[in-house]
Structures are given as C-alpha cells and as structure tokens.
Amino acid sequence: MGDPKGFLKVARQEGHYRPVCERIMDFDNVHKMRTERQSQDQASRCMDCGTPFCHWACPVGNYIPEWNDHMFRGRWNKALALLEAANNLPEVTGRICPALCEYACVLGLNDDAVTIRENELAIVEYGFKNGLIKPRAIRNRTDKAVAVVGSGPAGLSCAAELNRMGHSVTVFERDDKPGGILRYGIPDFKLEKSLIDRRLDIWKKEGVIFETGVDVGRDYPADKLLREFDAILLSGGSRVPRDLDIEGRGLNGIHFAMDYLTQSNRRVAGEKLPEAKIIDAKDKKVVVIGGGDTGADCVGTANRQGAACVVQIEVLPKPPDCRGPSCPWPAYPSLLKTTSSHEEGVKRQWEVTTKRFIGENGNVKKLLCMKSGREMAIEADLVILAIGFLHPEHEGIIAGLGVEVNERGNVKTPRGFMTSAGRVFSAGDMRRGQSLVVWAIAEGRSSAAEINRYLAGGR
User: Shortest CA distance to 232 belongs to which of 217, 212, 213?
Assistant: First the structure.
C-alpha cells in the first residue's frame, strides 16, 4: 500500500494548531489543515502490513489502507468513494474521533503510527472543495416510512442510509436545529457548525425530512408515531447527567457540563439568552470536575470566556504517557491526553475526590477535597460537573412507547437493534450507553441495515 518504503522515508507529521494567543480570543477552529502534498506524503507511510489492524479497530470498518493508497497516488476521487462507503460523517470523525485506528496501526509497533484521522479529514475536505460530494438521486422509492427520533450522529447516519435505500425518512429533533450533541455539545473551536449544515443540506436535497422543535412523546404523541410510520428508530442519546450528591450541591455557580457547553454554543451561534440565566466564566475562578474530553471542552470554553484561572480535577490516577504491560498493542490504551484546550491554560490534578462545596451568600466559593489522604481546598466561583451520563431520559417517548430498559437504564434491544416494542428500534448512546461519536455512526448504519431487513419482511 502506498510507497512500500514510505514509512522509512517520511516521519509522522502531527497536525498544527493556531497560536494559543490568537485562538483563545475566538471560537474559530483551532486546527490548521495540511496541504494536499503533505497529506499524500503522510499517506505514503501506510505499510503493506498484511493484516490491517487499523480496520479491525475502527467501529465503522473504514477501508483505511485502501484509501491511503489512493490518496498517495493522487486518486482522490477513489479515496473519497471508499471513505464514504463506510462513514456518513468523515468530516466529523476526521476532527473529533479519538482515532482508535491509530493505536492499532501496525507501524505503531516500532515507530509513530500513520496519521489516519488527518488523512481521512484531508480526503473529505478535498471532496467538498472540488465539488465531489453532492446529493445523490434516489431513483427507486419504497412505500415505507421511517421515523428517526433524535438527530445526533446515530440518528443522522441511520436516516441517511435508509433514505438511500429508498425509504421515506423523517428525523424528529426537539431542539431548534438538527445535530444533537454535534451541534450543542461540542464547541465550535473543535467542530464548526457550518460543517454540520453543509452535510445536512446534502441529505435534505436527497429527500430526508427534518422536523425540529418537536419533542416526540410529549407534543407529538407516541401512538400517532406508531400510526404514521412503519418503523421507528430511537436515537435520542444519553442525556441524564451523573450528579455529585454532596453537601453544598445546591449552591449557585455549580452547573452540569452539557448545560454549560450547550449554552455557550447557542451564544456563539448568536442566540439571545436571558441575562440572569447566562453561565459565564469571565473573571471567575473555574473548577472543572472530570478529566475526560467533555471536561477539556469546558476548559477551552472557560478560557475563551475570559476565566481568571481554570483548574481541572479527576478522581482517577494520572494516566501513563506510554503503553504498559496491562494494555499491549493493538488494544486502545488509557494514556495521558493533552488536548488543544489544555495547552491554552489549566492546572490539572489527579486523584482528587470532592467532599463538599463551601459557599458564601448562597454562591459557591470553595471545594473541600481529598488528595493522597490529605484535605485540601480549591477556590472556585464557577464549578462545572463533567463526570459523564447515566442513561437516556425515560420520560416522554421511551415511556410512551412502553420500551423496556436494562439494568443500567439504557434501552434494551433483545433482538439486535429491535426493542421490546416490536417495530421500534434503538441505536447510539440511548442503546449502548455513553460512547464515542464513531460508535454512534456505526450503530446508526447497522440499525439502518436491520430496519431495512425488517421492512422487507426479513424478520
């Protein structure tokens, strides 16, 4: 694949970011695209490894060695065709996927892995730039109608696939615009919302119908949904946040991460919010509880809002910098991750347990914590809880359809993606629990195939 000796000639070239002093002044994308020539050089590093573990590690089964070869040889249109054959949103995964594939790259055994994620991004952006990505004509339509409830990556991928199979698809979204967590949960400096709209415009022209501002199960009854559609996909995500039930939790200034990020994204988009409800980090001492990607997004957002200082604490030990015996190749390792947001200014602490919040006049002022058996206090005017999610919301459509949930509170799918309610299916975080965007896309695609079999009488 590529140049048989490419990995011996070309070193891995990491992506570049805009200077910190520049990027923290706005919410524009922090990433700088490589040139096409640089991307082709990086693609040449993909070896003829025989068994491509990158493909094994990728939830959507991307044809990674094949499109790297096409890109290296300048066959961008063929690279794009293979990329889109496995992934409905490569412009998203090319930006925010944790790149499970790269940690399974065979070259990574004794050298730096291939820059698979950035290569993927280079291909899809080449496609958009050169007019290769455009609406497809759906020539054969069935008489089947499918409702997709939730427009995150799982719902969107399922809708796109089912529509191209010829079914009539309507996507319901309770927010003002489609996109789910892609639009409201991820900051623009990682994923500009124009990228979502660019893809949505293509799917709309292909025939997918989007109904926004509709809370199915509340203002759109479940029984009406059953009457009007032949199959239903529930893909509303896992939106019930994990809380920290300790003394002082009721103080002002303590917020869930998704509330904070959603509001920030709405403000960046130009929406006007009531002044009294705005969560703003300007001139405040901010503490982010939770060391994952969502916590990092909160760090970057707080710095852009002008926080006086930002501290991020995590209850788990500090991850190692490199693989250990407990996590050998090609498994995805738990390693220390330093994001672009961390580079912009934050004090990170590990093995810190928050015991109680201390306030003055009803507002949070300190966190009383434990670290290494010792008590410590951290000053805070604003606390963001980024400690994950429990399960999907059970009120509304899940209750309305009588869908069973499992012991973790996620939608139970005893027959593949089909729920206990028969022609009702589920995919994404609502079914598997909080997970990665690439897993959501994979679930959306797989559920579409199963729904199609069901509609064709194959179940």
Answer: 217
Which of 365, 387, 409 is the last residue before a domain boundary?
387
Tokens of 78: 């063929």
Return the amino acid letter for 107. L
Which secondary-structure segment (H or E) carries 120? helix 116-129
Domain containing residue 287: CATH number: 3.50.50.60
Total tally of structural domains belonging to the chain: 3
**How do 285-289 and 209-212 pair as beta strands?**
unpaired
Q: Which two tokens stand for residue 423?
A: 């022609």
Same domain, 44 and 94: yes
Please provide the DSSP assignment of 197-256 as one string: HHHHHHHHHHT-EEEES--BTTTB-HHHHHHH-SEEEE-----EEPP--SBTTTSBTEEE
pLDDT of 459: 58
pLDDT value at 1 more than 70: no
Which of 387, 403, 428 marks a domain boundary?
387
Burial of 21 (0-12, 13-18, 19+ CB in 10 A): exposed
In tens, the pLDDT along 7-32 reads 999 999 988 999 999 999 999 999 99
Angle at CA of residue 38, ends 338 and 92, nearest 5°: 50
What's the domain range around 218? 145-239+390-455
Helix or strand run (H / E) with residue 23: helix 20-23
d(CA 52, CA 194) in angstroms, rounded, equals: 34
Residue by residue, DSSP assigns 143-161 as S-EEEEE--SHHHHHHHHH
Query: Mean pLDDT, the chain, as a whole number?
Result: 96
- Helix, strand and coil in the chain, % to nearest 5: 35, 20, 45
Q: Say how many CA atoms lie within 13 Å of 260 toward its Cβ.
A: 27
DSSP secondary structure of 45-70:
T----SS-HHHHH-TT---HHHHHHH
